[in-house]
Design goal:
By secondary structure, the protein is mainly β. It folds into 2 domains: 205 residues, Jelly Rolls (Sandwich), CATH 2.60.120.580; 67 residues, Endonuclease I-creI (Roll), CATH 3.10.28. The chain has 2 helices and 22 strands. Strands 1-5-18-7-15-19-20-22-21 form a 9-stranded mixed β-sheet. Strands 2, 4, 6, 12, 14, 16 and 17 form a 7-stranded mixed β-sheet that branches. Strands 8-9-10-11 form a 4-stranded antiparallel β-sheet, with no helix packed on it. The two termini are 35 Å apart. It binds calcium ion (CA).
Amino acid sequence: MKLVPKDKVIHAFSPHMDPVLRVRAGEIVQFETLDALGGQVQNEEDVMNLDFSKVNPATGPIHVEGAKKGQMLVVEILDINISSDHGVIVAEEGFGVLKNVVKGFKAKILPICDGHVIFNDLSIPIKPMIGVIGVAPEETEFPTGTAHKHGGNMDTKEITIGSKIHLPIFQDGALFALGDVHAVMGDGEVCVSACEVPAIVTVKLDVENRTIEWPIVETKEDLYVLVSLSKLEDALEEATRVAVKMISEARKLSFEEAYMLASLIVDVGVSQLVDPNLTAKAKIPKRYLA
Ligand code: CA
């Protein structure tokens, strides 16, 4: 199995990137990832010396042979193996949902043992997920901390073991990268970070001849349309529009009927509220699309 080592990282998804590896469609690949802070915070005092240019590394990019602009990359997440006995979480003045309340810049080291994150006297079961996952965008370069149509920092907890993420391909070869694994996170990621950990992620990469507008996560039962825009209301509206369009096409319904059906079966929610673009999700149960 091919492995992309953790020293091959990008800090921006740009339309033209040099791949560090080439794989065939259908191949299984492993990515060694750094944590979202670039591994710089190993004790609680280290935040004061944080080099922000090293934050949000994504391992890659890799070129998928045969992937063409206008198609869809299907990334099946086979495994997320946390490669540390601890994670770190930070809270910083000016960031997060309560940006005007929080003071200073604080870090907390969170031990991980027997499948649990230890927070003081509490044990929280891990549910590893991938925060940054994406491909080369169409025209503009996006820092790895910013999510948009190409994916990026979507911080969506459903991007987890057993899920498939569908990404629109904007450049031949797709140029795929991932990083920013969290041991556990709640919807919203309210304090601006989660339990940030290094990991080894195993994925299977496939290409399908289908065009999509925004990333979609597929779980056993559901599809989640992921839309990331600078205003939450705009992201919620666009995620709803895409979900209604998918229902209308799958069930051959008029817009108005699909809109009504969506009101009965679609759950609209929030992945994260704290990155430069905010991520909304619209969950459609797959059984209603079949
Ligand atoms: Ca993140």
